[in-house]
Amino acid sequence: MRTTQLPSEPLSVHVSESELNSGRLNDQNLEIATRALHRDGLVVLENMVDHAKLDKLNEKMVKDAYELQSRGEDSPYNYNRGNIQQDPPLTASCWEPSIFVHPIVTQVTSTTLGPFPRLSFVSGNTALPPTESSPPAAQPTHTDADFDHPHLPFALVVNVPLVGMTPENGSTEVWLGTHLNTTLEDQEGKHGDRASGRIKRELLDQRRAERGPCQPVVKKGSIIVRDLRLWHGGMPNMSRDPRVMLAFIHFAPWYRNPMEVEFAEKLKPELTAEKTGLRVQAKFVPDEEIESGYLNRPYGNTYFFDQEQRLEGIF
C-alpha cells in the first residue's frame, strides 16, 4: 500500500548527447519515460531540440500570433481570447525534423501505443500577453478527450514549446494521474461547444486534496509527451511576449482516426514511414496553398479526435 503522496511535478528525462546522436533513448531512460506516461500521463524529455532551430520557427510564429490576435472576436481562441490555437507553417522552408518528427519522441510514443503511430494532427497553442481587451484569464480545467473513449492509452499529445515555459509566461497547468479514470460523466459541455470537456468543480476539489495540479517549469529545448485524457488548462501569460507551444497527436496504430494534415508537396519524401517511424495521414499540397491557408484553418472543437467504426458491444 502506498504511504506517500505522489508528486504534482512531472518527471523529466535529460537526454544525453549520445542518445541524441543515435536517435534513441537507452533502455533505462525509455523505461522511466514509459512508466511516467502510465503513472502520471506526462513526461518531459529535456535537451531535445537545438535552440537556434526553435528561435527560427518562433520568430515566424510570433509574427503570426499578432496577426491572429488582431482579428479580435474572429481570432481562433480556445475558451478565452488570451489563448489561441495556432498552426505552424508546414512548408519546406520552415520544416525541421527535430521539431516535428523527432525519432526519440516516436520511440517513446510507439513504446506505449504500438509501432508506427498515426500522426493526424499538427497545430499549436499560444498564450498571449494580456491587453485591455483581453485581460489575464485561465482556461477552465478540461480534458481533450471530450467523447466516449477507450480507457487505455490511445493518443499521446507531443508538445514542443518554442521558448522555455514558466508560470510567468503561461506554462500549462497539469493534473498528473487524471488520465487513468476520467470519463464523460466527469465533464461539462458537449463536444462542439466552445468550452467542452470542462471538469466538474466538485471533482477538482476532490482531486486537489489527493494530488494537486502544477504549472511546471519546462526548459527550452524540451519536448513534452502527455496522454490526451489528462486534465489540464491554459494559464495566463504575464510576460511581454507570446508563448508558442506546438501540439501534435500520435494515435495508436489501431485507433481509426480519419483526420489528415496538410503538408507542402516538397515534404512528401521526408514523411515516409521508413524515415519517421510514423504513419503520417497527410494531404500534400503546393507551398503556395499552405502559405495562403495555414492561418485560416478550423480550430478548437471543429477537430474531432474520436475514431471511425467503433467497436460496439464487445467491451
Written overview of the protein:
By secondary structure, the protein is an alpha+beta fold. It has a single domain, classed as Jelly Rolls. 23% of the residues lie in helices and 21% in strands. Strands 1, 2, 3, 4, 5, 6, 10, 12 and 14 form a nine-stranded mixed beta sheet that branches. A hairpin with a 1-residue loop joins strand 3 and strand 4 (80-85). Helix 2 (27-39) packs across helix 5. It is globular, with a radius of gyration of 19 Å. InterPro entries: Fungal_Metabolite_Diox, Phytyl_CoA_dOase-like. Residues 1-20, 124-148 are annotated as: Disordered. This is Phytanoyl-CoA dioxygenase.
List strands and helices in order, with pairings.
Blueprint: E1 12-14, H1 17-22, H2 27-39, E2 42-46, H3 51-69, E3 77-78, E4 80-85, H4 97-100, H5 103-113, E5 118-127, E6 155-161, E7 173-175, E8 187-188, E9 198-199, H6 201-210, E10 223-227, E11 231-233, E12 243-251, E13 261-264, H7 273-276, E14 279-280, E15 282-285, H8 287-293
Parallel strand pairs: 1-2, 5-14, 13-15
Antiparallel strand pairs: 2-10, 3-4, 4-5, 5-12, 6-10, 6-12, 7-11, 8-9
Region (Disordered): 1-20, 124-148
Pfam families: PhyH
Organism: Coniosporium apollinis (strain CBS 100218)
